[in-house]
Amino acid sequence: MADTTITAGANDIIYTGANIASLISGHSGTYTLSSGFTLYVPFTNATAGLVDVSSLVGRLDPQTTTTSYFPVYSAINGSFDSTPIKTPSVNVSAGVVIWVPVTSSLATLVDVRTLISSLSASPPASPNTPPGPSSAASSQVAGTGASTSAQSVASGDTSGTTTSTSQTSISSSNLNTPVGSNSATETSPTASNPTSSQNLASPSTPAIGATVAETTFIGAVAGGVIGGLIIGVLIGALIWGLCFRGRPGPMAATTPSTRDSRDRKSLPTVVAKEKGAREVEGAAVATTWRKHLPQEKDDHAIIREFQSMFVQIQLHVEGFYGPEVGKVSKRTVEPIERLAPGQLPGLLLHTKDALPILEAILARWIVQRISLRSDAKYSLLPIEFAGIPEQNKWHMETDGRENGLAAESRNGFSQAFAEWRVLTGFLLPNPAPIHDGTVGVEANIARAASALTQAFAPWELPGKSNGDRTGSLRVILQLASKAGILLFTQPSTFMFEWSSRAGAQGNSLIVTPALLRRLDASGKPLRSAQVLIEPRVSSI
Question: Compositional bias (Pro residues) at which positions (predicted)?
Fold first, then answer.
């Protein structure tokens, strides 16, 4: 297949993956980033100096559905540099274009304008910063790159490079880099300004110097003698007072009132001062170590996590299942009833559009396993998170009539429960990366993906493989587990609510629940629950 050349300006985005490359220009609206594909977002350096590449990569992370990573690429002297930048910083000349890769494990919508704005807000290169350690991956980058052209080879081989003063030839095989991080620890050289001292002596006559020295010596001896006498008197008085104060005798018996009342008050005063000092010191220590605990996430980050999860559930059901494939019977619904007992499976017997019901069943099944509502051994959270709440019947899910935490009436429970969640998340070794997490969660995800796929089999659309359905569902469950861990470790307490705040009735079905904040970061109940995500209601 012939090479395809795509001319890209210095501010355009290159879209690559599966040995193809295309161009996104204009930066208007959103763009669908397919699974396994990569966007290369440009950053044009305006001034020569040291560019903080780590900062560029980190600026694209707030879009939680995507991941930015090393290595990044650049243009040197109008030509694409095939040597990737793997170091946290690099020296560049003015006008050099640096492309930061962004990828996603799931198909997702990417706001192109947000990506461009994030990098455009990055600070320019530091002209006075010394260069970092010299290596092949962090060599000096010089030249300009005003525009870019991307070439694609169907076989994956790299194609030739054409250069000019205004465009760069980029081979798509150079851009198709495995997702990973090769970031190194950035070190900054510390400037040392040693100071030297000089002893300057003024010229003087020997007679004057000898007189001054003699006078100083005599004064020092006299001062030492007087000081020694004073110290001796004070020590003797202290010993005398201790000896006679501790012995009962005529003086103690006949003159009890001679003690100053201030002596009796001095001990409590000292104790109170010491206690206050210890409290201040303890508060300082608490502030120091608490800053390392999981901190409250921005509401927008939490909303994005769960909105993405609900959207992926909807796309999965609509992409792999049909509203009515064949005749549905009680026997057909039994596998779903075993997995998700309740009223929802029975609705499948009396509807012509099964999709919203299937979506509601899947959403409720997932939410129960990240809200501490399910058995700990089947949870999508680590067993360390789910074990104690299961024993005490604590959960963060409600249908509007009951609250899984309100039944606990002990004073201080809300604050203790929030503190326990944060500390458990902090002490549990590396709970966030599911693929590197506990074996129990991975095993639960694998079993659940297979069981749910089999239960939904009567509504499968033809032409889709069972492996594709199971794989898609497994990715969704991993996303749900990650979102559940995030919610569990928040200082605030959240609740999933399966009721419509708009008062929907009749043939309405709540497909996905509302997400509410019930307690603030200090564990105090809010006067009215804060709604982060509204429930989604569908007619059946």
Answer: 124-133
